[in-house]
Specification:
This protein is mainly beta and about 500 residues long. The chain has three domains: about 1-285, Beta Barrel (Thrombin, subunit H), CATH 2.40.10; about 305-400, Immunoglobulin-like, CATH 2.60.40; about 410-485, Immunoglobulin-like, CATH 2.60.40. It contains two helices and 34 strands. The strands form seven sheets. The protein has a nine-stranded antiparallel β-sheet with strand order 10-9-13-15-18-12-11-16-17, with no helix packed on it. Strands 1-2-3-7-6-5 form a six-stranded antiparallel barrel. The N and C termini lie far apart (about 55 Å). One of its GO terms (molecular function) is serine-type endopeptidase activity. One of its GO terms (biological process) is proteolysis. This is Trypsin-like peptidase.
């Protein structure tokens, strides 16, 4: 599992790591803010099950009835522990194919329902006891179980919503209830309601993840903290989707973290300003203690999975280089092709079975053309094979195009010296090589002498003239022309 988590850790470290001259990078402040939702607003009582989840991050979540047969509201056992629905990424960092089920929640996780701005004195956090199900494979969903019962919640007038068995509506008016925190004053980090429209469902990629049938929307005010937010049809009372991701304006790139793209037969498309929600229909009819039930459409996470250790590569001699983690399976079949035009869930196109122990690494050559590609894996043991609808996958971009931006170098004046360092531009420039020295002795065009930038500034005394050189690289290793910054003595 460590190999599959490596790429995500690298991406996240780049995207949220400390940037020169500032703090951690965060999502842009919410624009065209959605209005705060008060408990006394018309229809506001419908949203008492929605609240703040404090887990691996701050998100929005909703109390739901237990999914599965025989769980109509009238049949609800008030003694049963309450279930809360949110986005998968709200409860941890996931590899592309990871599924978690039946795990104890870390200490300190809480959920506070009825998270209205006008009822702060009545907010009551409940401890989260366990993660019943969570994944970012194909969907971005998580169900956690509280230490409190449905009866405990009913005592404060919080009753669960049902999960819809239908996919998110297309072209319909929707309401989204969420509690953003990024760019929001701390005394306003409460529930808000966005009234907007959903568009035609589409598959979405945000490396390394792929989500099927995501619902685009133009909802206002979506920002960090909104994830997991409730989506219902206008005036509806059934959960149809939860908020998943947004195309951010503060980073660049396509199909990267914070820059999700739509994928399909026409290739890859990015739609700035669009947010996406994940339908909850796969959860409907699925008893969480029996993921193998015939009515369950959730991925049980049983198949062999390829490692996802790279985001982008140059075409020259590029290969998949994807290690297979057997996960108890002995044999596998694979297929590859352009992302969006290759559906891992389609049984057609897979090759002949092979023993995983004989081929533990898929090292087939990648196509030499620039594009996004997917490697699909189905696996089995004996006569039992994971169905193609639960195929595992990994993706990579073949990219030979240099960054579209030039290196940026900061030189801060510290009286007797300069603090000089290059500035990352996610995801155009994610690494730098640098060198510096006396101006007359350094030629930035000469490749000799460059060293990797270690995220520490160079402190250059103002006793001489300096030249600082920087070459930026994207995720595939494509380089910018060298940037020269000359500094004159005081």
């Amino acid at each position: 599992m460590r190999g599959r988590l490596f790429r995500i850790a690298v991406i996240v470290a780049i995207a949220i790591g400390v940037v020169p001259g500032g703090g951690p990078a965060v999502a842009a402040p919410a624009k065209n803010e959605a209005p705060l939702l008060r408990s006394t607003d018309p229809g506001g009582e419908r949203f008492r099950p929605v609240g703040r989840l404090k887990a691996s991050s701050q998100c929005t979540a909703t109390v739901i009835s237990p999914p599965g047969p025989g769980t109509a509201p009238g049949a609800l056992d008030p003694r049963a522990r309450a279930l809360v629905l949110t986005a998968g990424h709200c409860v941890g960092r996931f590899s592309a194919n990871e599924v978690r089920a039946g795990l104890d929640a870390p200490a300190g996780w809480t959920f506070t329902p009825a998270y209205f701005v006008d009822t702060v004195d009545r907010h009551r956090p409940f401890p989260v006891a366990s993660i019943r199900y969570a994944t970012m494979k194909g969907v971005d969903l998580a169900v956690v179980e509280l230490a409190a019962s449905y009866g405990d919640l009913a005592a404060i007038d919080v009753r669960p919503l049902e999960v819809s068995a239908a996919p998110p509506p297309e072209g319909a008016s929707i309401e989204v209830v969420h509690a953003p925190v990024d760019g929001v004053p701390s005394d306003q980090e409460y529930l808000r309601r966005s009234r907007c429209r959903s568009a035609a469902r589409t598959d979405v990629a945000e490396s390394p993840w792929i989500w099927h049938g995501a619902s685009p929307n133009d909802c206002a005010g979506i920002a960090g903290g909104s994830s997991g937010g409730l989506v219902v049809q206008r005036d509806g009372r059934r959960v149809v989707a939860v908020l998943n991701t947004t195309v951010e304006s503060t980073v660049s790139g396509v199909c990267k973290l914070g820059r999700p793209c739509e994928i399909g037969p026409g290739g890859v498309v990015i739609r700035p300003g669009t947010s996406y929600a994940i339908g909850v229909a796969p959860l409907s009819g699925c008893p969480l203690d029996d993921l193998g039930a015939p009515t369950c459409r959730l991925d049980p996470g049983l198949g062999a999975a390829p490692s996802d250790t790279r985001v982008a590569v140059r075409s020259e001699k590029a290969r998949w280089d994807a290690a297979l983690e057997a996960e108890g399976r002995t044999h596998a079949r694979i297929k590859t092709g352009p992302l969006g035009r290759t559906d891992c869930r389609d049984p057609a196109g897979y090759g002949r079975p092979f023993a995983i122990q004989d081929r533990p690494v898929i090292d087939d050559p990648l196509p030499p053309r620039e594009d996004f590609y997917v490697l699909c894996v189905v696996s089995g043991k004996g006569s039992e094979w994971v169905p193609a609808r639960f195929a595992s996958f990994t993706t990579v971009q073949v990219d030979d195009t240099p960054p579209a931006v030039a290196p940026v170098v900061s030189a801060r004046d510290l009286d007797t010296q300069w603090a000089v360092e290059p500035i990352f531009q996610i995801f155009e420039i994610v690494h730098y090589d640098i060198k510096y020295g006396a101006r007359d002795a350094v030629d930035c065009a000469d490749p000799a002498g460059y060293q990797p930038y270690r995220r520490f500034p160079a402190f250059l005394a103002k006793t001489q003239a300096w030249r600082y050189c920087a070459i930026g690289y994207d995720l595939a290793g494509n380089a910018t022309p060298p940037k020269a910054v000359d500094l004159d003595p005081a």
